Amino acid sequence: MTAGLPVFLLALVSSGCGAPKSQMEPKGPLDMTTLDPAQDHWRIATAYTHEATAMRQKAEELFKRAAHYERLFGADSEWVTGTKLLAQFYEDAARERERLAEVHVGLAGGHGSVPVPRLDSR
Asked: Distances in Å between the alpha carbon of 91 and those of 40, 54, 62, 68, 98?
């Protein structure tokens, strides 16, 4: 009677392995550069929007850091200049990601924008 227990447990565990994926799980890697209309452009646009939001947050942190460096080292410091340049780079990259998101929204047949994700404040 106990010999059937391991077989039953094995069958129970293996039946869960073939369960369909939930809608929240990633569907695989995205080809972010594709313009193929068969692709999930809403998903691509959402990914670009997430990237843009993260880059804007990084730029904001860097601008604050540059202000702090300015108080410590003076406005002409290389620390200030370098940090501001890096912050501007992130701002420009965020704008580009937003532009790409809008392109993919258009390819998806939408006219609106992708919701902006909220990132936790640190």
From this structure: 26, 10, 10, 19, 11
